[in-house]
Amino acid sequence: MFRFRSLLSVAAVAVLAFATPSLQAQGRAGAGLTPLVPAPKATGTIDGIVSDTNLVPIHAAFVSILGTAIRIGTGPNGRFRITKIPDGQYLVIVKHVGHRPISAVVDVAGTDTVRLAYTMEPSTEMLNTVVISEKAPALRMQEFEQRRRLGAGQFMNQAEIEAKNVPYTTELMRNFIAINVSPDHSSAQTKYYALSSREGGNPQTGACPMQVYLDQVPLPSPFDLDLLPSPKDLAGIEVYSGASTIPPMFAGYNRGCGVILIWTRIGV
Known about the structure:
It is built from four helices and 16 strands. Helices cover 21% and strands 32% of the residues. A hairpin with a 6-residue loop joins strand 5 (88-95) and strand 6 (102-108). It has helices at residues 2-30, 137-150, 158-164, 169-173, and strands at 43-52, 62-65, 71-73, 79-86, 88-95, 102-108, 113-120, 126-127, 130-131, 154-157, 179-184, 191-196, 211-214, 217-218, 234-240, 259-264.
């Protein structure tokens, strides 16, 4: 009789042991607790229009966001719309045959819509009545080597970039004596600008920022170097410290502090 009651007790304990997790689960469910699910990331929208200097809408302008796969064209009314963009800072590039490419840094925050308006100037580079708006990567690097042989600026080719083995293009800029990489702590996120080493300081106090080009596209000035492509995507860099050494096609009234030309391997 004692042996029979002991076996019953053991069986009861076993049943309770297996039942406990279910009871605990019911208790958690009863307490209103649910499994943790990651909150969806906030996304925004870029809504823009592209026109010429006469405010005529430009159809089929090429709009891209650097560092992403986003590539779209403008409609007959010159408008474009990009949705579901994660929060962050982006470089938007606009190109169109017969017009000078332009760019702008855009901050996307939350579910807001960023509204942009771009005015494109006609390109003045002509060849046999055909407007030239962009050169193939191979041709660009041939011209890079030609200027390098002339020795008017400072140069770093693809092999030299790879030998530096740095993760950020900002670090490459520190290798040029003509460039003073200056941090700006005025915002929540530190930005790094390329200033003329002859001027020093920072752009907030009137120092002279160098004009940066990315595959012939002039970037906003001053420009945060951390927004540039990774070193593994670059084919070459050339730096000109003053107006007298800048190649004619990149010269201008606001180029006195120098110019930085950055070439990618496949183009932007």
